[in-house]
Amino acid sequence: MRNIILALAASTAIAFPAMAEDVRIAVGSFNLNNLPFPVAQGLGLYEKHGLEVQVDNFASGGSKTLQALVAGSTDIAVGFYDHTIQMQAQNKDVVAFVQLARNSGLVLAGRPDSTFDPAKPETIKGAKIGITAPGSSSDFFVRYYLERHGLSDDDVSLIGVGSGGTAVAALQEGKIDLLVNYDPAATIITERGIGKILIDGRSDAGAASIYGGVYPTSVLYATQGFIDKNPETVQKVADATVEALKWMHEHSPEEIVDVLPKDFVTGDRETYIKAVSNAMPIFSADGIIDPEAIKTPLAVLSTFNDKVAKADIDLSATYTDRFVEKSAEAAQ
Known about the structure:
single chain, 332 residues, D-Maltodextrin-Binding Protein, domain 2, five-stranded mixed beta sheet, NitT/TauT family transport system substrate-binding protein, signal
């Protein structure tokens, strides 16, 4: 009997970790750049590491997530690395501590009859281009492409169309000529014959054609103040997320989709699996932030953001690898 009681106690402790820490994590959208976060959720890794996670989903995008973090209504955000640079230019310390997506993941798509030819950049003139929102990474994608080819945003019309299904519908219905967006939208467009991919930033070569190099995107970030006050909590979040990244690279797209929370999967399952397969090259395997790669977002932002261009940005203050490095040591 005593052994049975001890076994029951042990199983209860595993199912309901004692003294689970509450942490609020905000996520800006369901684009696949953020995929490692819901994978960690679906695998129960945050609970495994002693966390009780309250998730706030801001479907309108990363800017709302960033606002929530700076305002203190969330503890940690799943957002894009370039936000940390923008915040430093405003004298706010926001620090990335796990990298989820090591590359852009953005594509530029057009309808089947599109007349834009990336080999002839001037053919983009007059196009109505859908982006997720003004000031977003998709906005910078277009503007930097134009800048590098001697064109300007006056040569096109930039229209906010969101992401996912609404973005696909805007292209399909002819409200826009071109669309810059992420998976699963990118895969849905090709699988359903709605359009074709003209520039593919999911690959290193595609990113280089736009930015001149890979463009780190999705990260976990927090204010420096929160990190300083709650290093153990941040470490647990890092441990769970790094474990999810490793798991993703050891499993098939089908297995990845199987563990996702239902509300994360958009469209039919088979198309979504293909989208995950197409996006896999962008995901970090270890969560490490490369100090060389983050120079690309700084170059892009300095072109379009006056505050960033005028500021003396210290990239070393925008990220830390100490938590993921400790995660790696603990896993050995």
